[in-house]
Design brief:
By secondary structure, this protein is mostly beta strands. 10% of the residues lie in helices and 37% in strands.
Amino acid sequence: MNKPRFALLLLLASSWLGVAGHPALAAQLVPLGFEEEMYADVFANPPAVAAQPDGSSVVAWDDDTSSVFEGTIPYAHFRPGQGPEDSNAGWGWLESPAGVPDVDAVTAGQQGYDVIWHTRPEYEEEGAPTRFYRGHLNLRGVPVGKPVRLGGTGTEWVWQVRGNGFMAGWPLPGKHGLVARRLAASGQPTGSELRLNSRPVDHLAGVSVVGLADSSFVAVWLGAALGVPEERSCAPAGSLLRASPWGPTSTSIRSPWGCSTCPPGPPSRSPPLPVEASPSPG
């Protein structure tokens, strides 16, 4: 092939990719406003954010001043096109019924936003159990009702599963297992326990559940292999990263499978598991 024809072929191929390629790859992202500083103490933790289809959003975070000394979670609600510099932005605080709140997530739904947090003991309450709460904001970013406790004693994880409400999970150390239960609107467990793992797992370090478009969900967990003592669970060779898909009726679709072809690393030093789903089913 001569050079002119080869150049023409490249030009046509590039044009076709620009037209037929994935829209997200062709989009040109531009900033909508200037970067602005939001209120936070020097010890602020990473924020959580959720957005509605119209472009409105809520950002929530916890910091040393408002969370530790006041037991509150600061948040900001922005209408479409607004930013932190806008004087009409909705700034507010959610008050935790107990403990020092740490924000876990903000989710957006048709009725507004849900801010989910867990508590850690205050300095004078060492040994107090961890509690999970949900605070609801309407579409205008205004709190509705009082925070609802999610799960009960022993709950170590809470997830909002798209199309299926909330779920709570906890480990079963004596049975080398991981279980979950759905939560009623009151926040209390309802229905039967779901044993998420079919193979033994110990020293669970992180668990994540993500809902899919058809109301099914996938559970992913990181832990240690059976028989590995806790003091050696940090060794990569003893760690496990596995996943299990579940149908809309909470029935297991297939046996859990390994997510990595090499050891995932020390469980006790790993951050929370970030898991997301595509907009389409599956």
